[in-house]
Design goal:
Layout lengths: L4 H16 L1 H20 L4 E2 L1 H5 L9 H13 L4 E4 L6 E3 L5 H13 L1
Antiparallel strand pairs: 1-3, 2-3
Helix pairs in contact: 1-2, 1-5, 2-4, 2-5
Length: about 110
């Protein structure tokens, strides 16, 4: 089975994250699907965690955990952070890459 370049790159990024930030990796592994549901269902271009959280039908995570997961997804180039000040991180959802998040999720689920 041949692995695409992007899949190989994502695999390497996830391996590095697992070694360098096991707790963060655990959040990502456990809650990427909640984050995806919230991101997919949000109709805003720029949103805070609570706006994204409100769009998760049956959340398995709290807002703090979702925020940590979203920051990790930003580090994996799934979305961008517009601003991060006074505990009011605003995510730029115009950069959200649903396909990249799906690929990350598939790699996490396949482990």
């Amino acid at each position: 089975m041949t692995m695409s370049v992007e899949t190989a790159d994502l695999t390497a990024l996830l391996t590095d994250m697992k070694q360098e930030n096991p707790q963060g990796y655990g959040y990502l592994d456990g809650y990427w699907d909640d984050a995806k549901q919230g991101l997919d269902n949000t109709d805003r271009n720029y949103a805070r965690v609570r706006h994204i959280y409100e769009n998760i039908p049956d959340p398995q995570i709290g807002t703090r955990g979702l925020g940590q997961t979203l920051v990790l997804l930003a580090k994996l180039d799934v979305l961008s952070i517009l601003t991060n000040r006074n505990n009011a991180t605003i995510y730029d959802l115009t950069t959200y890459d649903a396909n990249r998040l799906t690929a990350i999720g598939q790699l996490l689920d396949a482990k």
